[in-house]
């Protein structure tokens, strides 16, 4: 038995107790910034204070977004980009691995560049750089994406041939390229290596052959997306409003990564050459969504942008289902982290150790609904409140869709008026989809179920719902587990099953 002991204490002692002196949310003065210089995200969970994001007091404008599939990462990014463009006229370049943003960018009057579907990038383009610097970047990309790093001789002859190709096209390798002068392509580099092979004077023909073979992977007819003259003006990427670089039509991950690395390199150069500007706000945001290969590698320019971006008003947004795929140097240095729903212990451990939030916040993160988030901000000056707080929901530009399963065909009139049994069950669309997936309902059945509910203002009667599930092949065991997961008691479940007639069907 526990004894409750009453005691007299002074108000100053009470004030020292952590809850009162250290509320679990930053003070409103920190959460709310000048609306003309900040972006509205949503209200906080505990005190319902509107949270507007601004990078002014943060260590940098970079953002990491993590969460399981369907948690709301891309939705957050879209909301953020649209509002940044209202507030600061911020330009955005989305490196769109899976083509997820294409439709939205089209709808928002942005520009979609579909690589692999008519658009080409010449990875030897200079946009004002010195050919020597570009050569180094191309080699770094090859090191990240191929095994060239393991073969120093092949690396050397490749580098030499790239420089030679620039010289042959009339460039001076150690001088900034004149604007508008056409760069050579990887095909020219391959030709140079082939000539050398044919001359027969080079000591290690096998090395040459392998170097040629490696480059050819990116220059084959039909797959020469990066070995032809560019159809995009890279210099304009960061000043063209909303630009989606859709990589989803490229044949594989290596091609996508090469495109992404090259675009990051060009953006970084642009950032450096434009230099410091006095204007307020953020000039450009670069989005890397699920681009693990390039967000994870130390040599990727994503790391560089995180280090130097602040002074150029250039922000990076990295979104991923797996926080351990984001390079440490990025993850531990971003000014803001949004953690949406995360389930895996491994990821929670990682997040907790790097952000050091409480076990309360940890358990909340595992229970988040769509769009709910924990936010951590790194301030420039020391603060006296916890850095991680909860958001009720990211309030975006799209409505949430609520679906209802109605119990009026299960309960009697008197039960309905007695109000003791649940009259209906409400779900957010993705929550219900997620649940159905959990109980092995097929994708096609889910789609037809939703089509039916959409036709009836997003609602369905319980018995019809159960019959539909059964018709689409869901077993009684799974149907019962689904009902249990709604905390319906066994008696009522038995009634639902028998009234629906599915056990005999
Ligand atoms: N804050 C929110 N308010 C309303 N709807 C939301 C919110 N966040 C996400 N959604 C909706 O939930 C669905 C899934 O969101 P989203 O595509 O952003 O997930 P994701 O985390 O990017 O998933 P994935 O990892 O699979 O790309 C979408 O239909 C989206 O419209
Ligand atoms: Mg997404």
Description:
This protein has 3 domains: 22-120 and 231-391, Rossmann fold (3-Layer(aba) Sandwich), CATH 3.40.50.300; 131-216, no CATH class; 402-504, no CATH class. Strand 1 and strand 2 form a beta hairpin. It has a 9-stranded mixed beta sheet with strand order 5-6-4-7-8-3-9-10-11, with helices on both faces. The chain has helices spanning 11-16, 18-21, 28-31, 73-88, 102-107, 131-145, 152-168, 186-199, 205-216, 253-274, 292-296, 301-308, 328-331, 345-355, 359-367, 413-418, 429-438, 443-455, 462-471, 476-485, 490-500; strands at residues 39-43, 50-53, 63-66, 91-96, 111-114, 242-246, 284-289, 314-320, 336-339, 373-377, 388-391, 402-406, 424-428, 459-461. The protein contains 21 helices and 14 strands. Helices cover 42% and strands 13% of the residues. The longest helix is centred in the middle third of the chain and has 22 residues, at 253-274. The protein is globular, with a radius of gyration of 28 Å. It has 505 residues and is an alpha/beta fold. Bound molecules: adenosine-5'-triphosphate and magnesium ion. Magnesium ion binds at residues 73-74, 100, 289.
